[in-house]
Amino acid sequence: MNGRETQEGRRDGVKEEEMTVSFFRKMIPCALLPLFFILAAPVSSAAEEGLSKERTVRVQGYGKVTAVPDQVQMEFEVQEEGTQLADVSARVTDKMKAVFHAVKSFGILDKDFKTVQYNIQPKYKYNNGESQRVGFIVSNRIRVVLKKTDQAGDLLETVTKAEVSGIEGPTFGFSDPSKLQIEALKAAVEDAHAKALALAESAGAGLGKVSSINQTGAAMPTPPRVLRAQLAGAADVGTVPIEKGENEVAAEVEVVYLLK
């Protein structure tokens, strides 16, 4: 019995020793963690203090460029209605072919016009609360981009003679607006630099390098569509006077400069 008790005591002592070692292994990292933050704090504070000492000026720059549009977009629609769908669809097809011919006579390439909507709608008649289908309404709409902007009025007159039912447009724009957007951004940066320089000189400081720059806005206003008409059954509208004028492209930037 005494031998067994001795062995069991030794085992209990080994277990207690292992538990003590394990406890200290877990506690040592936790004890060192506050020391790490104490050592790191002065470095972080010094970095923040260095940043706070830098003098900066933040300005908004605005730039815009104007240019004469080099293309014009229009939409033409043909619409027919009747009792037989096949007959109505055939009439719409024939009229749209005439519109295609008129469009191509202005040298417009196939890639510059496309169908944007083809719609078949039942036509109903209501009597005593009951609906009865009496026919169909079929419409076909195409979008055209004309590069020769001075011919916009002539094109409108020509498609009207081709018995187009509706016209929407013209809308003047640019074939490559990205070039104008870049020019507007350059003008915005120059405007921001002029403002920052004026502020720095007024404060008795020198203007340093750019710390950061961001584009905060860009706009290319879409001019209003100057003509929208339903022309079914209308008389010859004659030559339509169209003035393309100029379009404006604008940009905004925010720039932060260091002060000397």
Q: SSE order in H/E notation?
A: HEEHEEHEHEEE
CATH topology description of the domain at 70-173: Alpha-Beta Plaits
- Unreliable spans: 35-41
DSSP strand count? 8
**What share of the residues does DSSP label as strand, in percent?**
35-45%
Helical amount among residues, as a percent range?
Answer: 40-55%
The main sheet orders its strands as 3-4-2-5-7
CATH class of the domain at 70-173 equals Alpha Beta
Overall, the morphology is elongated
- Profile the largest sheet: 5 strands, antiparallel
Task: Itemize the secondary structure elements and their pairings.
Elements: H1 2-53, E1 56-67, E2 71-82, H2 85-104, E3 113-127, E4 130-146, H3 152-161, E5 166-173, H4 177-202, E6 207-219, E7 228-230, E8 247-259
Short note summarizing the structure:
With 260 residues, this protein is of the alpha+beta class. It contains four helices and eight strands, in the order αββαββαβαβββ. The longest helix is centred in the first third of the chain and has 52 residues, at 2-53.
Q: Any descriptors?
A:
260 residues; alpha+beta; Alpha-Beta Plaits; five-stranded antiparallel beta sheet; three-stranded antiparallel beta sheet; 4 helices; 36% strand; elongated
What does this structure look like?
By secondary structure, the protein is an alpha+beta fold. Among the domains are: 1-53; 70-173, Alpha-Beta Plaits. Helix content is 42%, strand content 36%. It contains four helices and eight strands. It has helices at 2-53, 85-104, 152-161, 177-202; strands at residues 56-67, 71-82, 113-127, 130-146, 166-173, 207-219, 228-230, 247-259. It has a five-stranded antiparallel sheet with strand order 3-4-2-5-7. Strands 1-8-6 form a three-stranded antiparallel sheet. A hairpin with a 2-residue loop joins strand 3 and strand 4. It is elongated and about 85 Å long. Residues 35-41 have low confidence and may be disordered.
